[in-house]
Amino acid sequence: MSPVRPLRSALLLALMLFGLGVPALARADTADTGAVQTVWRLLDYVAVDYAGAVSHGRIVSAGEYAEMTEFSASVRSRLAALPADAARVDLVRQAEALQRLVAARAEPEAVARAARGLAGDLLAAYPVPLAPATAPDPARGAQLYAKNCASCHGLTGDAHGPDAAKLDPPPVAFADPGRARERSLFALYQVIGQGLDGTAMQSFADLPAQDRWALALHAGSLAFRDVSAGERLWKSDASIRKRIPDLTTLATMTPATLSAAIGPNKADAVIAYLRANPKAVVAVPAGSLSLAREKLHQSLAAYQAGDRRAAEELALSAYLDGFEPLEPMLTARDATLMGRIESAMGELRGAIGRGAPASDLATKVDVLDSLFTDAEAALSPDAVSDVSTFLGALTILLREGLEALLIVVAMIAFLRKAERSDVLPYVHAGWIAALVAGAATWAAATFVIGISGASRELTEGFGSLFAAIVLLSVGIWMHGKSQADEWQRYIKATLGKALSRGSAWFLFGLAFIVVYREVFETILFYAALWTQGNGGVVLAGAATAIGLLAVIGWAMLRYSRRLPVAKFFAYSSALMAVLAVVLVGKGVAALQEAGLIDIRPLHGFPRISLLGIFPALQPVVAQLTMGAVLILGFWHNSRQKRTPAAAE
Fold first, then answer.
1. pLDDT digits over 377-413, tens only?
2. Torsion angle, alpha carbons of 629, 635, 641, 642, to 10
3. Which of 27, 292, 383, 540 has the most beta carbons within 10 angstroms of its beta carbon?
4. Same domain flag for 54 and 157
5. Which residue has the higher pLDDT, 496 or 571?
């Protein structure tokens, strides 16, 4: 890869050839990509190289000044060639103003500002792909540079490669910070793809586009070395992240532009980090932590202005629209951090609800800002590994599947004890239908509609509460039949009627609800894991979890066959009671997260989501109430058993 700073006439010829024979269309969605990119690149060269032609109103290089005049005229004529359009009229007006600045030998800062402004408006009117579809691979870029560029530009970009002395004009020093600050990645990408006629700089258009972007990324990073400082700035300063929200901005922004906004030292460091780690700008999905931050600060502002209702709605939106979509991925990466953020957001909403001082809310928002920074680090591509992905896939399916497995296995064991295998198909049909419905939900959410945070929480909440109520009644009923003689009387008197077709369909519904609830949750977690690009590892974790669940289910069924009837019902009733308490806690917490139930935080109270224990008053009260009802039901059953015995 040879000189990027060539003879200007050769560059102009290359630019002209690039744009010839391609129709320019007026609409932004159909504008010719090549024509727009050519104009953008001309403007980029004017912005960067005009300083070498004019200084303090005097021409310092007649040849370069002539080419700047030619470049600005070419920009104007190319824009004027576009079909008539309101945007085109303004662009041509700006191009004429740029020509006047060049003709008047204006200061380089004014010319650069006008050229950059026109380039930005051009892309706003005629959007074209100015960035790679995915983040380039820095390691790949380094390999390509060593193979194709180091012989001229030097391995470190110092322009002292073994072939550099043979070249006229000499190669560009990519390690020169002054020049590097004026070059965007897109400008480098253009040169790599087109080459420069009249110089030793050949075209690398035969390389795939992603390789050319990787090469541009590496060449553009050689002048910026303070990666660690840039990482600290990027992760700690939300305002910097807001300035570079995507790959397009990273590809088109010059370090000089960023320097004007945040200062040269910070800009150089941030550019060093992002060009070494381009995935950082796409690490967090759209509509996520940045949205959550924005909504939280809007909520605080509304609360400080006295609009409590708006503050509540914005705080809820910060959770449902911002943070909640990231829960599955963050849970897979750092479940403890996810729990801390969820609790902190609940405390914030609780503080709004009880009318806490605005200073308290400001403190809570600051705490969440810090937690979000930790979450961004956890969600970074650098934080993922095959081991963490495997363990995430394994533990998620085990955790979500165990509750459903326990209930379904208990139902199957009960029917076998009752010698009613004819009803088993209803139970099996229930959990199989839940798996099919889960697959349909995934397909709909992926290809047809989106599942909102509120919909997810409402589905989990009402599903959990329904299952908890059913398990409450089943647990008390099983406890009442935990004596062998009582079971025998029940078999003879009512079993046939109790397990009628209606009851069989009830068992189908229960199996469907408890399994679908877990499948629904698992789908969201696995979709998040799958986006990390480790599909084989995810499948391995899922297969391992399925194997473990199968072993647990087999062991439970085998053990239940050996249990005496009394013990079977005693153990089953205890299992149903525990699951009912767990699910009612989860259900109330999910409805709180959906904004259907207010939040009263319990500071210092433990959070054990596996057991449905959350640091808020409502789920704790719901669990205590469920426990009290179960104890009362069990006590009533025991009293009923003692009464006949005393009568005898």
1. 777 655 556 776 787 778 778 877 877 787 788 778 8
2. -160
3. 292
4. no
5. 571
* Total structural domains within the chain: 4
Q: Give yes or no for a contact between 148 and 1, defined as CB atoms under 8 angstroms apart.
A: yes
- Residue recorded with tokens 């960023």: 258
Q: How many CA atoms lie within 13 A of 112 on its CB side?
A: 19
Residue with tokens 């397009």: 248
Return the pLDDT at 384.
57
From CA 487, how far away is CA 266, in angstroms rounded?
77
Burial of 121 (0-12, 13-18, 19+ CB in 10 A): middle
Name the one residue in this structure whose structure tokens are 């998620």.
396
CA-atom Rg of the chain in angstroms: 33
The whole-number pLDDT of residue 525 equals 66
More confident of the two residues 519 and 305: 305
Whole-number Å distance between alpha carbons of 185 and 126? 19
Is the predicted pLDDT of residue 23 greater than 70, yes or no? no
| Residue 130 within a domain | no
| pLDDT tens digits along 350-365 | 899 889 999 999 999 9
Share above pLDDT 70 across residues of the chain, in percent, rounded to a whole number = 77
pLDDT at 12: 36
- Structural domain contains residue 184: no
Q: What per-residue confidence (pLDDT) applies to 268?
A: 94
608 DSSP β-pair partners: 613
What's the pLDDT band for 220 if we cut at 50, 70, 90?
very high
Burial grade of 86 (CB within 10 A; 0-12, 13-18, 19 or more): exposed
Above 80 in pLDDT, residue 614?
A: yes
DSSP label at residue 255: H
Q: How far is CA 168 from CA 3, 127, 155, 201, 204, in A?
A: 9, 37, 19, 11, 20
CA–CA gap between residue 85 and residue 29 (Å, rounded): 13
The answer on 295 and 277 residing in a single domain is no
Query: Is 187 contained in some domain?
Result: no
Domain end, chosen from 383, 414, 433, is at 383
> Which of 362, 383, 404 is the last residue before a domain boundary?
383
Q: Spell out the SS3 assignment of 369-399.
A: HHHHHHHHHHHCHHHCCHHHHHHHHHHHHHH
Q: Does residue 277 share a domain with residue 295?
A: no
- Structural domain containing residue 255: 138-177+206-282
Which is nearest to 18 in space by CA: 2, 52, 41?
41
**Using 50, 70 and 90 to split pLDDT, how confident is the model at 478?**
low
Distance CA 244, CA 639 (A): 70
- Collect all residues with Cβ–Cβ distance below 8 Å to 606 and sequence separation of at least 6: 613, 615
Question: Do 433 and 367 share a domain, yes or no?
Answer: no
357 and 472 belong to one structural domain: no
In the 8-state DSSP scheme, what is residue 558? H
> Is residue 132 included in any domain, yes or no?
no
What are the two backbone dihedrals, phi and then psi, of residue 159, each rounded to the nearest 5 degrees?
70, 20
Q: What is the pLDDT of residue 377?
A: 75
Continuous H helices in 444-483: 453-480
Q: How far is 517 from 464, CA to CA, in rounded Å? A: 7
Residues 369 and 503 placed together within one structural domain of the fold:
no
Residues 484 and 617 placed together within one structural domain of the fold: yes
3-state secondary structure 293-331: HHHHHHHHHHHHCCCHHHHHHHHHHHHHHHHHHHHHHHH
Q: Is the pTM of this model over 0.70?
A: no
Cis peptide before 169 (omega within 30 of 0): yes
Residues near 280 by beta carbon (within 8 Å), at least 6 away in sequence: 234, 273, 274, 380
Residue 103: pLDDT band (50, 70, 90) is very high
Return d(Cα 150, Cα 1) in angstroms, integer: 8
- The answer to whether residues 308 and 210 belong to one domain is no
Q: Residue 424's beta-bridge partner residues?
A: none
